[in-house]
Specification:
The chain starts with 5 loop residues before the first helix and ends in a 22-residue tail after the last helix. The protein has a single domain, classed as Four Helix Bundle (Hemerythrin (Met), subunit A), CATH 1.20.120. Helix content is 74%, strand content 0%. Helix 1 (6-26) packs parallel to helix 6 and helix 3 packs antiparallel against helix 4. The chain is mostly helical and 186 residues long.
């Protein structure tokens, strides 16, 4: 059984993996020029790769479930939850995680597009698919596509920031956290 829109999902997955490879190559520009990658550089690279792999898994999951003869209506519900939960966690925790690494939150454009638009689209898709409205497959694929483009936008902005850093930029240590009741390190 072939799931509705499978060729679109396969194409999207291929584009995502290609972008992941391309972004990794671009991040080698600074070391090739003799600069060390900063903590922020490494964090941004890890963030892009993590988001891309979640998106790629989400693009391949419907076809995988179809191989097990899962009914198509169930496929979109299961995929919506399995995609939205980790993606929303990544999107909404990004400002906090970036602040821990860089000492400041993301630039406004990144916050609005990468975090805001991405999270709104992901949450809207989840509600739409679980609400059992028509065209759940289209809503799912639209959310994947939009989230993919928010990652591309975030990467382009991050690349601009990375390439503007001086070549001799030293690695900045992560800020120390205060010990508190919820701190696992005591």
């Amino acid at each position: 059984m072939e799931v509705k829109g499978a060729s679109f999902l396969y194409t999207l997955a291929g584009l995502m993996i290609t972008f992941a490879g391309f972004s990794a190559l671009l991040l080698t520009l600074r070391p090739a020029a003799g600069a060390r990658l900063s903590l922020l550089d490494r964090y941004l690279a890890k963030t892009v790769m993590t988001h891309i792999f979640v998106l790629t898994a989400a693009a391949l999951l419907p076809a995988l479930l179809a191989l097990f003869d899962v009914p198509e209506t169930s496929i979109w519900r299961v995929c919506a939850v399995l995609f939205a939960v980790p993606m929303l966690a990544l999107q909404l925790s990004f400002p906090h995680r970036r602040r821990k690494v860089a000492g400041s939150g993301p630039p406004r454009a990144i916050f609005l597009v990468f975090v805001g638009l991405g999270a709104v689209v992901t949450l809207a898709m989840l509600c739409y698919v679980l609400g059992d409205f028509q065209n759940s497959a289209a809503a799912y694929m639209a959310a994947l596509t939009i989230d993919f483009f928010t990652v591309i936008f975030g990467f382009v902005i991050a690349l601009d920031v990375i390439l503007q850093q001086p070549i001799d930029a030293m690695e900045r240590p992560a800020p120390q956290q205060r010990s508190g009741a919820g701190d696992m390190n005591g």
